[in-house]
Every structure is written in structure tokens, then in C-alpha cells.
Amino acid sequence: MTVLTATDRDALARAFAGDARIVVVSMCAAWCDTCNEFRVAYERIARSRPECAFVWLDIEDDAAIAGDIDVENFPTLAVFRNGLPTYFGVSLPHESTVLRLIDALVQSEVAVTDAPACVTALPDALTNPPAD
Fold first, then answer.
1. Pairing between strand 53-58 and 4-5?
2. How many other β-carbons are positioned within 10 Å of the β-carbon of residue 88?
3. Residue closest to 5 by CA, chosen among 59, 75, 44
4. Selection from 1, 21, 13, 31 nearest residue 102 by Cα
5. Start-end of H helices in the chain
6. N or C, fewer C-beta in 10 Å, the chain?
7. 96 φ, ψ to 5°?
């Protein structure tokens, strides 16, 4: 599976509608060297977990979608199951760390109850972008 971007509206809608077991959104920035290095690993992770969907969201280029999400460090991951957040936070940009997190979340049925409203709204923002 390839990593989706904010412009892949149809694929994003299918992923959030249930085609993917979970949807992992990595929030990064093009100017961030750590993000650019992590993207290669993120793409490998996406290929190794085809039952999940992976999204790359540039918090500056896609600011209209990222909205008020507070990204304190990179990469920040938001993971969703059935459109509900199951994880939101900073991750080490290591392939093995992210793989362990994803594998644990695939097995878990727990939803995050204290996610900020802007994170909870991210699936809708990705599939129904604001008008220009």
C-alpha cells in the first residue's frame, strides 16, 4: 500500500469508511529533516501493513486540514479505528517503534476519550476538505 496524502480524497474516504483496519496519520513538515528521514521508514511500514491505511499530512502545506491540531514535535501520529481516535501523540521516528505501536493498536479495541476535538474531527477534515 502506498502512503496517502491529503489530496487522495477517494482513497481516504474508503479508508475511513472501513476499508482499512486502522488509519495512521503522520503529521510532519516538509522543512523538517527528521520528517524527511522518517518518511522513507513510514512508507516501508505502510507496505508491511496492507490491512492499515497510512496518511502523510504536512501541517503547513495542509494547514486548512490540520487546523488547530497542536503538533509539539515530529512525527506526531494520530491513529483511528472506525473514524475514532485510538492514539494521538509524538512518536520516536524509528521504524521498529512505530511498528510496535501500530501492531498494539491493531489488537486493541480501546478508543482515546480525551483526544482534542480537532483530532477527533481529522477524518472528516481529510475526506471533506474546506472550500478554498
1. parallel
2. 22
3. 59
4. 21
5. 9-14, 33-48, 63-66, 95-107, 117-120, 122-127
6. C
7. -65, -35
∠ CA 64-65-70 to the nearest 5 degrees? 95
Q: What is the mean pLDDT of each run of 10 residues along the chain (132 residues)?
A: 85 81 92 93 95 93 87 92 91 93 88 85 86 62
Cα separations (Å) of 21 from 5, 16, 43, 65, 104? 18, 9, 17, 22, 13
Query: Nearest CA to 37 among 77, 75, 83, 79?
Result: 75
Given the C-alpha cell 497542536, which residue does it identify?
Answer: 70
**Separation between Cα atoms, residue 2 and residue 87, nearest integer Å:** 21
- Domain 4-127 adopts which CATH fold? Glutaredoxin (3.40.30)
Question: Whole-model pTM?
Answer: 0.90
Q: Which of 55, 54, 53, 68 is nearest to 130 (CA)?
A: 68
pLDDT of residue 1: 59
Q: How far apart are CA 76 and CA 11, in angstroms?
A: 22
